[in-house]
Write a structure and sequence with these properties.
It comes from Paspalum notatum var. saurae. It contains 14 helices and 14 strands. The chain is of the alpha/beta class. It has a single domain, classed as Rossmann fold (3-Layer(aba) Sandwich). The strands form four sheets. Strands 3-2-1-4-5-7-11 form a seven-stranded parallel β-sheet, with helices on both faces. Helix 5 packs across helix 6.
């Protein structure tokens, strides 16, 4: 093989570097989770390359402001549907974190997620990466109406694809198929794969834009929704999710799925926590069923693998929610409490 061969060069470089010199790549670096993964990697001394559709876009400015970014972070243009752009992004990288994934129920999301994941795995293997950490979702785990309510869900559980498709949970379908694709392709290429499976992710955002997860909190805090559904959801702190990614990368024995879930709450409990933390806000107070149906029961998860194999400790949900709200206030996403109450009363009187 020629000494100018980029594949041979990439493999040699990745094998020769110690951990403190390792270059790693994060896809979707500017997103909610991706930004925190970049921050955690920089904090630990890695050299980081982040991918974005447009690295010069001002929405990525927060990444360049991170501690250590000036010396050890570069941003590059890449598209998961363009394998050549991925190969260029992954050149010389010891590891890849595939975080990029839009949260959407657009039917086009499924083929893009699957083909994009296939491209990421193969481009990483082509360029000599030793490990891929893939961001999945608990939507790929718990969506099964036939499962016993007393079951404890762990890494062996999968959502019912037909049920998700029938109920138009396209995001869950996309995550399931993308994760299975990553598993199959990584095994075929001999690439170590670790999968982080987070739930609804909350906590402070590094980027300035309001994301889906923080909007989930804001709409109940401000009373923007008149009622909350008779439903439960699982939550994790974005900082824990980012740490799980890096810990899974750093532990050579880490393989397969790792659930990252701190708490499971009914929406009534979520509203109660928000009301207790921020009594000055008009938190949504009424369930849409209004006593017509039994309260949905919180399901149970086991995060033993993440705790025991990765050494992950979970941030209490109250702190995650508190920090998320303070962040939204500082970014101007939330009006001061008095103005928020006035707006809520005006809307209620219409």
């Amino acid at each position: 093989m020629s000494s100018d061969d980029p594949l041979a060069k990439a493999k040699a470089n990745s094998n020769d570097k110690g951990a403190e010199q390792q270059l790693v790549c994060v896809t979707g670096a500017g997103g909610f989770i991706g930004s925190w993964v970049v921050k955690e990697l920089l904090r630990r001394g890695y050299r980081v390359r982040g991918t974005a559709r447009d690295p010069a876009d001002c929405k990525n400015a927060h990444l360049l402001a991170l501690e250590g970014a000036k010396e050890r972070l570069t941003l590059c243009r890449a598209d998961v549907l363009d394998r050549d752009s991925l190969r260029a992004a992954f050149a010389d990288c010891h590891g890849v974190f595939h975080v990029a994934s839009p949260v959407s129920n657009d039917p086009e999301l499924v083929p893009v997620a699957v083909e994009g994941t296939r491209n990421v795995v193969n481009a990483a293997a082509d360029m000599g990466a030793r490990c891929l950490v893939f961001t999945s979702s608990y939507g790929a785990v718990h969506m099964d109406p036939n499962r016993s309510p007393d079951a404890v869900l762990d890494e062996t559980c999968w959502s019912d694809y037909d049920y998700c498709k029938r109920t138009q949970n396209t995001y869950c379908c996309a995550k399931m198929l993308a994760e299975r694709t990553a598993t199959a392709e990584a095994a075929r290429r001999g690439l170590r794969l670790a999968v982080v499976v987070p739930s609804v992710t909350t906590g402070p955002a590094l980027q300035r834009a309001l994301n889906v997860s923080t909007h989930h909190v804001a709409r109940y805090l401000t009373g923007a929704r008149d009622t909350y559904p008779n439903a439960v959801a699982a939550y994790a702190d974005v900082r824990d999710v980012a740490r799980a990614h890096v810990l899974a990368y750093e532990r050579p024995a880490a393989r397969g799925r790792y659930l990252c879930i701190a708490a499971v709450l009914h929406r009534a409990e979520l509203a109660a926590v928000l009301r207790d933390l921020f009594p000055q806000y008009p938190v949504t107070a009424r369930c849409e069923d209004d006593g017509g149906k039994p309260m949905a029961r919180p399901y149970r998860f086991s995060c033993r693998r993440a705790k025991e194999e990765l050494g992950l400790e979970f941030t209490p949900l109250r702190k995650s929610l508190y920090d998320a709200v303070l962040c939204m206030q500082s970014r101007g996403h939330l009006l001061p409490a008095i103005q928020q109450q006035q707006r809520h009363h005006q809307r209620a009187s219409l």
